[in-house]
Every structure is written in structure tokens, then in C-alpha cells.
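Re: weekly structure request thread

Next one in the queue (296 aa):
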Amino acid sequence: SSDLLKVFYLVQEKYGVDFGKYKINTVVRRIEKRAQALKLNTLNEYAQYLEHNQQEISELYYNMLIGVTKFFRDAEAFNILSSKVIPALMRDKKPNDDIRIWVCGCASGEEVYTIAILFNEYAKAKRVHFNFKIFGTDVDDEILARAAAGSYPIECFEDFPVHLLEQYFEKEKDSYRVIPEIRRYVVFARHNVLTNAPFTKMDLVSCRNLLIYFNEEAQKHVLSTFYFSLITEGALFLGPSESLGKYESGYQIIDQKWKLYSKIGINRLSKEFLATFQKSQLSTQPAQVQLQSGSA
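Done, posted below.
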């Protein structure tokens, strides 16, 4: 409806994020929830209210964002990442090689640090040094600033392996802060996977529980982007409710339950992937990337 388009436009004008590419039912439910909280009865009333209320645009925007994340979310999935995926990715790497990792939709950064720690544990076990470059991206500056700070309340560590907590975090008053050795591996960047140019030559792309919020066209674009981003035999890590759909033949399955895949080389399908990707890139804008690097 025109009222819904007006809502999308007002949010996009302020934050540069187009929620029209998200699943419509999810978006409408969240808009209705905000309208009910304000005792507004129709979408038209809510759209008019938004026009004159910048604070409510912010409230709606943060309601729409998916900020749910935690350390070692789905512990079994991270066990497989640690025992099967990381050793396979590192098998042919030489000391001081670059290892490039992209965590897309990283929210407050817990998954970024989880992955950084697991790669570092592998390097320590092998007694070898690698140049880890980990890009944590999201669309929101505020949540990225929290991720960049690397400090989390004590209750975030309930399921955290104790031996890793002692090694990788420093206790503060009522929180733990990630140690500088791990923090400097990571660059946090504002990046919209639907509109900005992708990161490239990635060994691992992790994007867990973001695709489920996108409509089918947006999902195709993002999956094409990830395929383009990964090196051959690079790994893709999705959320448990997500799938590659018809693009599955572009990957070898590492673990179906936990959605871990390894990219196979150029074939007919990957050419289709690239065609989809290049076509969708025609409508994208150059990346407005603001970096918050490990020196922060």
C-alpha cells in the first residue's frame, strides 16, 4: 500500500536501509506492534505520525533490526566449525598467510569474537602464526560501536567455555573485555549486504539468521554475493533455519543440520550465480564503509 511505502521511505531516508526487501509479514507485524504501542489504529495514521516524529522512525528502525546474537550460539555448530571446517580451511595455508573471514549481520559482535577465538586456538595448537583478517559488518553504527568496544556483561558468558574465557577476556567490574590480541584481528564496518559491494577472497563467510528475514529476491542476491565473495573451497556458515535452495549444487555439504558448506569450483551453476550477482550489482551503490579497526 502507499502507506507502507511511505513508512519504508521515511526509514530509508534516515538510515539508508530498505525494509521493502525484508519479508513483508515480518515487517508489517513489527509496524503494527509500534502502532499499537502508540494507540494508533491504522497504517495511515502511523505513517502520518512517522512523518512528524523522528524519534519514532528510530524506534521502528531498531525494532526492525535483528540484534539477537550470543557467544557460541548453537554450540554443536561451533564444535563442527572447530573440528572439521577450520582444519580443512587451514590445511594448505602457510605461516603468515592471510586468512580472510566475513561475519555478515554481526550485530553486537559475539559471533565475530567466537570465530576469531576458534581460529586462534587452531593456530596455537599448530604453533604457527597466520594473519587473520576478520570483517564484522552490520547496517547500524550504534550496534557496531558496541561490537568494537568488545566489552560484554557477565551474564553473556553463561555458556562460554571457562578455559577460553580465562584466556581471551579480561575481567572488568561487571563485564569482560576481549583481549587486544583478538581485538586487533577484527575490523567492524557499516555495510549493507543488499546494496554495497561485497568483500572478496574470503576463506569463510558466516551469515546466521539474517536470510530468514529477507524476501526471496533479496535472499538470491545475498547468496550470489556470498558465492562471489568466497574462494574455491571457502566455507559458508548459515543459520539452522536457512538453506541454499536451488544454489545448493554450487557447494559441497559439510553439515546439513548446521548449514555448513564448502564452495565448489566454477561450474554451470556458478556461472548462473555470477550472472545473478552481476545483474543485481547494477542497482547497487558503492560501499559506504566506516571502519572500526582493532586499534580502537
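The CA atoms of residues 168 and 179 lie 6 Å apart. The mean pLDDT is 87.
Next request, please.
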